[in-house]
Amino acid sequence: MADKLTETAKVNGGSAIAGIASPRCLNEDNYVFQKFMRMACGTNNIDSASRTGFAAAQKYFEDLLGQGITGNIIEGLKHSETILVLGGDPTAVNPILGLSIREAARKGANIIVLGYAKGLEKFRTVQITSPVFREAEVLEAVLVEIAREKGVRGERPYVDKVIRELSDKEVTIKPEGYEELKKALLESASTSIVMGMDMVQRTDGHRSLFGVAGLTYLLEARLYLLSERPNEQGLIDAGCVPDMLPGGRPINIPDFKEKFEAAWGGAIPGDEGLTLFEIIEGAKNKTVKSLYVMGENPVFNLPGGASIKEALGALDFLVVQDLFLTETAEMADVVLPALGWTEKTGTYTNLERRVQLQIKAVESSSGMEDWRILSELSNKMGYKMNYSGADDVMREMARISPLYRELTYGEIAEGSSLWPYHGEPLRGEVNEVPEMTDVTKDYNADFYLSVEKPLFHSGTLSRKSPALMKIYPEPTLKVGRAAAGKLGIEGGDRVEFSTSSGSMEAAVTVDDSIRDNRVYFSNNFPGSGVYALMNYNIDVVTKAPGLEGCEVTIKKTG
Fold first, then answer.
1. Which residue of 5, 102, 232, 235 is surrounded by the most CB atoms within 10 Å?
2. Per residue in 323-338, pLDDT tens?
């Protein structure tokens, strides 16, 4: 394996190698992974499935509003007068955060929901159901009207400029609840915005992101991003993105790059690497020849499953490092057995940017820590990495990364290690807002397929739990009451549902909280993941996949 990767880099250059990191792995694992890719393989082609939502959104917000804009304490939600929730159900995606929203509601907060959030049905004060896939227009409309009332702040001229440009537009979309939303935001002395990844996963998702950024800026609101995996924040901080070194330092700023090169004892490639879907495209067109996947299952967990499988099949060499023989591992040339989260010691960083220490609870007779596999492979490739344990990796991170400066396991164990720890945040580096693109399309189909995020399952690992499988044993197609009536179906009926990519069969659940013509299916069960039925377009600004407009036909079978 070391010889194959070395040969790829020697013959085709480091840019022919790419790596997909994991938001389920430890900070230490991800730090060593990006160091391995940059120093041993000679590439900045490093990204993760977090690109499909969290990483894309965070980069956009930090570019506009400054590093740390999403680093807010969950406890702060309980003290908000108004909470705007959009793009996902926090009670299912991040239950602790969802409970804080419910507590705020009990204290009298305005809970305004834009879209589908079943877990807040009994707690919301306002429900806004926009025309399907047109939430960006609703956000732009309310941003414009608030700007007319409050004026711009003058702190970030490039943001003020775009808000003024939007203000020239006539407000034409005001769905039910719109006026209550505007009034609550204008009158609130303490506002929080909780955004899920459904807002990001649009071909023009950057429009919604600017709407949220503008509201955050004008209202001086707290901004929370729902995180679907346990360490999405940590892998970004560790440097598993194609344009940033550890600590959020841009790779194209020479001073930062030179400091890491001096610490690591070698050259870092100068160009920004490929994002996740650019890596997939590179595999398809043979510019990426070798791919190293750590703790991820792109064949199952990314939209356009057939296309992803085709792309990985075109590689010269595929390495998968994981716990189980996943759909992606079955295609690999080499599979390396790793350890599960209970079997290793290290740190995670949660959505409020709190670093948390995990101590190994279970001894394993097989497999190795991800960081250890990578360091041993790196040694065989000629770049030496010698760590005695995960704490040794953290010591290096604390010495080298400006973000983790002097952070220790002892301090982390106390539970108070909150961003920016002992480090120094950066000011926003951009001086203009990326140009916004309107995706003009009429959505006139009877039904559209969307992704369900069930409370009792996360990714595909949870299907290995007998207890969770007993609670939620199989996926069901969730439809609204109006859709059920139109189709002549009831809860428990079986249906076949089809898109241009294929078809599946499942039982139906009727969900009264679904008020538009979207139907929902999960991506957690083998052989029946919704992503296999969904194609995507790429948002040119965020590089995240747009999943909107997936037309689906539904036929009762029993």
1. 235
2. 999 999 999 999 999 9
